[in-house]
Amino acid sequence: MGAVTDDEVIRKRLLIDGDGAGDDRRINVLLKSFIKWCNTPSSPEEGFTQYQRMMGTLAQCEFSMGKTLMVYDMNLREMENYETIYTNIEQNITSAHEKIAECKKEIQRAKRIRKNRQEYDALAKIIQQHPDRHETLKQLEALDKELQQLSRIKENVDAKLELRKKQFHVLLSTIQELQQTLENDEKSDNDDSQESPVDNGE
Question: Given CA atoms 85, 90, 93, 99 in this order, what sign does their dihedral have?
Answer without folding.
Answer: negative
